[in-house]
Write a structure and sequence with these properties.
It is found in: Membrane. This is SHS family lactate transporter-like MFS transporter. The protein contains 22 helices and no strands. It has a single domain, classed as Up-down Bundle (Growth Hormone, Chain: A), CATH 1.20.1250.20. Helix 5 packs antiparallel against helix 9 and helix 12 runs antiparallel to helix 17. It is mainly α.
Length: 440
């Protein structure tokens, strides 16, 4: 392992070829900009609610519809990636979520806005699975944990960018009609489409996918397609991954989506201070994902996930109940270091647990089905807070951390360790034969 030999993070990056670095950078940016577009919604919840003259729970439905449609996108784009390749599918995917983000900015009514967010959810759902497959299949097996953590933190960087833009730009936007502040923010969110042009000329296809296609042609087999038979064959693995990702998504979204609202409502902070705290929190998240991802090469994926998740519980008092901005910022930093530290291991762990013939489909679909099951998390949190604490979110979100951390530790412990598994075509064919033999 590279990190254990003292090469460090820069050494891991320098060990890649130019093509590998370009591919990884494009996949990282795709996930970053996808998350940026999603989190623009979470930081603008109050402004959108005011514009449409509804309460925060009604606008929180937009988060629900984004999350609930993501499994469909993971399935559609994942199947396209298995058949036509990871690279062209990811390009189309990025263009789609940029278009729907722009459409959201011009939605004249709440109903149309919710439809736009549902369509955005389809596009967002496809990005993670296809991008992770393209990135991790293009990289060497050793050091996969480090790159897993770095890739996953594209989501955090997207959150960081959204919070920074909100804190710096939003207070100065005073337009009316279709140029109100949140709409301008969403227009900026459509810029990721430019990444598609970069990918068209600079990014190469996954060598694992190309080798599989070559093998099929030489053996006279049809192109790669995902069938329901494959889903049945790997059903136990599929259901376990859905359960795992339900716990993870409830944990992550439960500590992030309504946290800016908690800071505004419970602590009466202005947008500048909210943006500052969320930025500090996301710096912690980014560092946590990278550090824990790299450590998973030494400690194992399962052990690292469990340790990081459980470390979030002692951070609750500082994170939700502090009374000063510095203390809240420190709490946010430590909480997200733990939460996203656990999540940083997921791209490698999920792809290593997924069978090779469905690697572009299973990780993305199970990830997004986990989002689906936990998709009303924000709505439930807001309504529970209204019912039990007059709208204050700190108690509800504190219990979310406890339940989420314990659930992740339990489910992860029930799974297998697959650190550094061989993804060569020959190895995957052997694995398929072994599972088929077990079925018989």
């Amino acid at each position: 392992m590279l990190a254990s030999r003292g090469m460090g993070f820069l050494g891991e990056l320098k060990s890649l070829t130019s093509a590998q670095r370009t591919t990884f950078a494009a996949c990282f940016l795709g996930w970053t900009l996808d998350a940026f577009d999603f989190f623009l919604l979470t930081v603008c919840l109050r402004a959108i609610a005011a514009d449409f003259h509804v309460g925060i729970p009604q606008i929180a439905e937009a988060i629900f519809w984004t999350l609930v449609m993501r499994p469909l996108g993971a399935l559609i784009f994942g199947m396209l990636a298995e058949r036509y390749g990871r690279r062209p599918t990811l390009i189309i995917n990025i263009i789609c979520f940029s278009i729907f983000e722009l459409a959201s900015a011009f939605a004249p009514t709440l109903g149309i806005f919710l439809v736009c967010r549902a369509l955005f959810g389809i596009a967002m759902g496809g990005e993670w699975g296809v991008g992770a497959a393209l990135a991790l299949e293009s990289l060497p097996a050793r050091g996969r944990g480090f790159f897993s953590g770095l890739l996953q933190e594209g989501y955090v960087v997207g959150n960081l960018l959204a919070a920074a833009l909100y804190g710096v730009l939003f207070p100065h936007l005073h337009g009316t009609g279709m140029l109100t502040g949140w709409r301008v923010m969403f227009m900026i969110g459509a810029l990721p489409a430019l990444l598609a042009f970069y990918m068209q000329f600079k990014v190469e296809e996954s060598p694992t996918w190309l080798e599989a296609q070559r093998r099929r042609r030489s053996e006279g087999r049809a192109g790669s397609r995902v069938s329901f038979q494959q889903f049945r064959q790997y059903l136990p693995t599929f259901l376990f991954l859905v359960l795992l990702m339900t716990a993870f998504n409830s944990f992550s979204h439960g500590t992030q989506d309504l946290y800016p609202t908690l800071l505004e409502k419970d602590h009466a902070l202005d947008p500048g201070r909210v943006g500052f705290i969320v930025v500090i929190s996301n710096i912690g998240a980014m560092l946590g994902g990278i550090v824990c991802g790299a450590l998973s090469e030494r400690l194992g994926r399962k052990r690292m996930i469990i340790i990081a998740a459980l470390c979030s519980i002692p951070m609750i008092p500082l994170w939700a109940w502090s009374h000063t901005v510095p203390a809240l910022a420190l709490g946010g930093f430590l909480m997200q270091f733990a939460v996203q530290g656990a999540f940083g291991v997921i791209p490698a762990h999920l792809n290593e647990l997924a069978p090779g013939p469905v690697r572009a489909v299973f990780p993305g679909v199970t990830y997004q089905l986990g989002n689906l099951v936990s998709s009303r998390n924000g709505v439930f949190q807001a309504r529970l807070a209204q019912h039990f604490s007059g709208g204050a979110l700190n108690a509800v979100m504190s219990w979310t951390v406890v339940v989420g951390a314990l659930s992740i530790a339990l489910v992860t412990g029930l799974g297998r360790e697959a650190r550094g598994e061989d993804w060569s075509v020959a190895s995957e064919d052997t694995a398929v034969q072994r599972e088929s033999a077990i079925d018989r």
